[in-house]
Structures are given as structure tokens and as C-alpha cells.
Q: What sequence folds into this?
């Protein structure tokens, strides 16, 4: 990560990167959705998330003297701070839904807390994003229940996705040492403290879906430090291709 | 077993005070999914404030072959339009 970043810059980029990378992943479904209606639902969520990423990048960009495009298109993998969960491949529809389900619960809890941030700009971003995030969570919860409690095959695929992605959840709820001053100043919440109420609610949805929430250790994920799984490089290669190949190009 | 989800008709209310207008149709497994999909497919450009969905099989339509009998007779009865009244200036929005 870049040495000139202050704690708030780091937090803003972390938030923006989560939204941008998951938004990009969902955009990969465009034209490939299982049916037209779900194709549009997923790309709507994608556009919501990319819109939210812009808000964080704009604020970070003002502080760092860089444009939102420079932050999105000209940062290298080691300077991206998204969690490992959001860079994981779409897989089948079950994997996409489970990834979304995990992210949406985290996103809602974090935004609800950020609405009370002492930083007015951050509080405003949270308030605006929360309306979208609530719909995303309703969407992913309904699909978890529908597919978990669906056919034998949908249940099997959902359980496989839960087993594969659960180890990535822990990273979302870790406080970063670099953020201690932000927590003290009530700019951001104690993120680790968000976990236990959320866990209970997720367990309730998973119970209703007839799936089993696996008990698994978290991966030693280090996305917030710019250390990523093999997948992020491929995402950035596609995401940044135009600006890398034709620097400064515009519409 | 039926492999396709049933068809639903979607009605959107553009704003409060106006009535719901047919927007189109979509496939969905049940009413919850139909409303969610209607939101994603038909209200992306701020088209409405309320959604109705109804399964298409519950709609009964007039027979196109009866169109002459049903609708032609109204065409020459212009006196049924309230266009022959003179409105006072005070009355607006008519």
C-alpha cells in the first residue's frame, strides 16, 4: 500500500475497492444471466455498487489529488484493498448468490453504523448507499432460501457454494490496525463488533433455507493490506485494459 | 413437470394519484419473485412508485375477431365525448 495514505484514505479506498470489484464481477453476468429478469437484476446491483465505489473514490481523490478514474484504472494490484471474498470468481449462480449474501449482510451492518459517522461526507455516502444495499440484501436472502429449499440440485449447489465461500467471511469483520484512530474518533465503527448480531441473522436465513452453515476457520486473508488471491490480477487486467492500452482516452 | 416459470403481467403506477398502467410481462416462479423482477426490469428509469403483478392466466381478454362488433359502433358517437360544454375560465386541469 501507498505510504502517503492516511487512515481515512485507506478506509475510503477499501470501501471503494470492495464495491468496484464486486460490481465488476457482477457485470460479468451481463448477457449470461440464467434468465433475462435475473440478468437485469444482477447488472442493476452491479451498477449500484460501481456508483457507490465512485462516491468513495471521489472523496479519496479530493484528499489525494487524484481523479476517481485514476484511482480505479491506474492503481496496481498491491494498492487495491478489497476483501478476498469480492474478487472470487462468479462460479455458478449459487456461488454468485452466496458471495452476494455474505457481502450484503456486511455491507448493511457497516453502512448503518457509518450513517452515524462523525465525518459528514462519509455519513452522507452511507445514507445514500443504504437504500440500495437493503434491496440487495433482500434479493440475495430470497435467493438463498429459494435455492437452498428448492430442488435437490439447487440445494447441493448452494451448500457447495456455502462451503467454498464461508472461509472468506472472517476477513470482512476484522478491524485493521491502521484504522484505530478512526474508530477512536468515531469516524468508523468497531467493525469486529458488527459480527455477532449479523451472524445470528444470517444463521436464521440459512436455517430457513435448510442449508447448513459450515463451521470453518477463516482464511488468513490480507486483502486490506493489498495482498490478494490469484483472481484479482485477472479482474484488473480486464477492468484497466482501456486506460493501460490507450492512456488518457475518454468517451 | 413444467419447466418454464409462469408468465406474469406487470402494472406500474407512475406516481401517486395516477392509476397503474400495463408495463409488460415477465417470467417468475411466484408473486414475490415477480414483483422483484418487475422492479428490476420495469422501474430502472424511475418509471414508478408502485407495482402490481398478476399471473397472465388470470387475465381474460376480448376476442380480436369480435373487434368490429364491440368497438366499431362507438366510433361515430362523438356526442359521448364531453367536448360540447363550455367551461368557465375558473375551471382548470380539465
A:
Amino acid at each position: 500500500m501507498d505510504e502517503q495514505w492516511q487512515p481515512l484514505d485507506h478506509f475510503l479506498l477499501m470501501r471503494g475497492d470492495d464495491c468496484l470489484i464486486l460490481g465488476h464481477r457482477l457485470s460479468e453476468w451481463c448477457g449470461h444471466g440464467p434468465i433475462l429478469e435475473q440478468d437485469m437484476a444482477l447488472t442493476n446491483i452491479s451498477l449500484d455498487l460501481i456508483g457507490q465505489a465512485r462516491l468513495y473514490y471521489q472523496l479519496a481523490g479530493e484528499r489525494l489529488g487524484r481523479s476517481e478514474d485514476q484511482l480505479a484504472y491506474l492503481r496496481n494490484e498491491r494498492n487495491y484493498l478489497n476483501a478476498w471474498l469480492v474478487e472470487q470468481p462468479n462460479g455458478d449462480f449459487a456461488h454468485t448468490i452466496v458471495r452476494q449474501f455474505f457481502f450484503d449482510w456486511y455491507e448493511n451492518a457497516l453502512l448503518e453504523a457509518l450513517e452515524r459517522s462523525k465525518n459528514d461526507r462519509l455519513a452522507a455516502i452511507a445514507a445514500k448507499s443504504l437504500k440500495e444495499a437493503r434491496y440487495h440484501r433482500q434479493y440475495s436472502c430470497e435467493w438463498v432460501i429459494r435455492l437452498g429449499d428448492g430442488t435437490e440440485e439447487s440445494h447441493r449447489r448452494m451448500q457447495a457454494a456455502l462451503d467454498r465461500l464461508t472461509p472468506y467471511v472472517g476477513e470482512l469483520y476484522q478491524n485493521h490496525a491502521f484504522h484505530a484512530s478512526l474508530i477512536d474518533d468515531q469516524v468508523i465503527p468497531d467493525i469486529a463488533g458488527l459480527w455477532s448480531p449479523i451472524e445470528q441473522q444470517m444463521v436464521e436465513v440459512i436455517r430457513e433455507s435448510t442449508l447448513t452453515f459450515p463451521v470453518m476457520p477463516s482464511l488468513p486473508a490480507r486483502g486490506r493490506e493489498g495482498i490478494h488471491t490469484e483472481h484479482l490480477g485477472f479482474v484488473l487486467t480486464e477492468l484497466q485494459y482501456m486506460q493501460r492500452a490507450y492512456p488518457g482516452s475518454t468517451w | 413437470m413444467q419447466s418454464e416459470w409462469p408468465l406474469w403481467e406487470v402494472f406500474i403506477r407512475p406516481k401517486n394519484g395516477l392509476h397503474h398502467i400495463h408495463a409488460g410481462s415477465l417470467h417468475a416462479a411466484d408473486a414475490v419473485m415477480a414483483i422483484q423482477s418487475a422492479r428490476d426490469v420495469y422501474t430502472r428509469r424511475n418509471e414508478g412508485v408502485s407495482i402490481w403483478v398478476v399471473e397472465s392466466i388470470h387475465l381474460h381478454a376480448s376476442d380480436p375477431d369480435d373487434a368490429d362488433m364491440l368497438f366499431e359502433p362507438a366510433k361515430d358517437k362523438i356526442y359521448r365525448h364531453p367536448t360540447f360544454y363550455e367551461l368557465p375560465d375558473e375551471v382548470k386541469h380539465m
Notes: The mean pLDDT of chain B is 91. Helices of chain B lie at 31-42, 67-71. The interface with chain A takes residues 5, 26-29, 32-33, 36-37, 39-41, 44 of chain B (CB under 8 Å). The two ends of chain B are 53 Å apart (CA to CA).
